[in-house]
Amino acid sequence: MGETTAISWTHHTQNLWWGCEKVSPACDHCYAERDSKRYGFDVWGLDKPRRFFKPEHYDAPLGWNAKAERLQERRRVFVNSMSDIFERHPDEIQNNAMNAARRDYFERVVPRTPWLDHLLLTKRPTNVREMVPRPWLDGAWPRNVWLGGTAENEEWLRVRVPILVRYPAPVIYVSYEPALGPIADELEFWAGLPGAPLVNWVIAGGESGAKFRDADLQWYRDVRDVCADRDVAFWFKQHSGLHPRALGDLLDGRQHHELPEVRA
Fold first, then answer.
1. Which of 108-122, 168-182, 184-198, 240-254 has the lowest mean pLDDT?
2. DSSP state string for the chain
3. In the chain, what percentage of residues exceed pLDDT 90?
4. Does 25 have pLDDT greater than 70?
5. Domain residues of the chain, as ranges?
6. What is the value of pTM for the model shown?
């Protein structure tokens, strides 16, 4: 985690805290919960405190931005890979700490890192409105903040994506990971018209680890084809398995790794 990451669709990860509460089937075998326990942190569940960091940790993106500017190459940062950026905690002290960390990131770090695209991913899109700065909702959403939602199957796509596409983020994306059922028909409805997509990017991938739930390769292929038809970027991360494969031959050599164009 941090400056380097094994997550193929981002360059960096920046965690404001560790810990979360499970809310849907995608969470059942959560890698973040597994890794938290592996490092000795009991931070999972509504009754558990979250793990925060020393002040210097929160300035890491400033250094990444300086490097990206020197190279003249944009870099992507997955924010809160070990939690949900838009979670609300029932404990007032914990919730205030989460609010303060979010506010610092949104109001201090984001404006100072124009060479970084900050990827916010949530299973709680209804919380976005009250947790982002008010100017973002009133026409000043930063050009370098992308907003994504997890949709592991059609049921959860129908719940989350219609809320997600209402926000004025320059890039709206869907994380179809772990893929637990087909979503292509429902995605086609919400993707928008060809040339004018509501969703700009879809990341697809199966579950990994000893308890992985199997996915059908045709699910990915169907999503890829919907994306191609609607001018939506597509990123195939991996198939399901103990040690997953991310090779293009799984999808007939066509993974559509194009990244989304920022909406005007």
1. 240-254
2. --SS-S-TT-SEEE-S-B-B---SGGGTT-HHHHHHHHTT---BSTTSPPB---GGGGGHHHHHHHHHHHHT--EEEEE-TTS-TT---SSHHHHHHHHHHHHHIIIIIGGG-TTEEEEEEES-GGGHHHHS-HHIIIII--TTEEEEEE-SSHHHHHHHHHHHTTS--S-EEEEE-S--S--HHHHHHHSEETTEES--EEEEE--BSTTPPP--HHHHHHHHHHHHHTT-EEEEEE-SBSS----GGGGTT----PPPPPP-
3. 83
4. yes
5. 1-131, 151-264
6. 0.93
